[in-house]
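Justification of computing resources. Each target in the renewal requires a structure prediction run like the one illustrated here; the chain below, 230 residues long, is used simply to show the kind of job we budget for.
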Amino acid sequence: MSDGSPIRVGLVALFVTALVVSQVTASKLLAFGLPFSLPVVGEALVLPGAALAYALTFFASDCYAELYGRRAATVVVNVGFLMNFVLLALVWSTILAPGLPPEAQPVDPAAFRNVLAASTAVVVASLSAYVVSQNLDVILFHRLRDLTDGDALWLRNVGSTATSQLVDTAIFIGVGFVLLQGTPLAVALSLAVGQYVLKLGIALLDTPFVYAVVGLARGEGRFGSASRAD
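Resulting structure tokens:
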């Protein structure tokens, strides 16, 4: 498959877009009601807003790793890591840039700063979690592929994501909410469980879509040896 394949470009675009969106939406806490009660979380899953978008990064990276190999997936993951610094630079340059008086602004400058500046702690925590979990996901994905001789795509998709997301959640909540924002441990534990349960559910639900993307890419007839790349 050529480097300019729409599927390849689309997966990279989805990965980076979901990553950036997760950084700027994480400061909102979401609550999903449950028809039953779970230990720790009770009758609602409470989690950072980043969980929804961030879960898509693992879907994109798993598809990319399956199609283009470990080395190519690692490049995408580490370029995404650097884009977090670009995000911080652009956010703070906009916050600090001179602007019209508050009464002439469509959004109050103080509110604008409060919302976007809140992403700084999130990005710091995310950098810590991201560089570990995303690289772990790529490593585990290919380790499971080797162990299954290239079969059971569902196993490496769910297995690698479930493990790396657990590590990611622990680091992200621990650094971003406990260390940097002083969130009580009981609240942080509830956030961690809620976030992980949702991420695990998405990993299970996205498996058919992983098969669809991989099947579509391989059906283009221009794929060659990239599907078996290391």
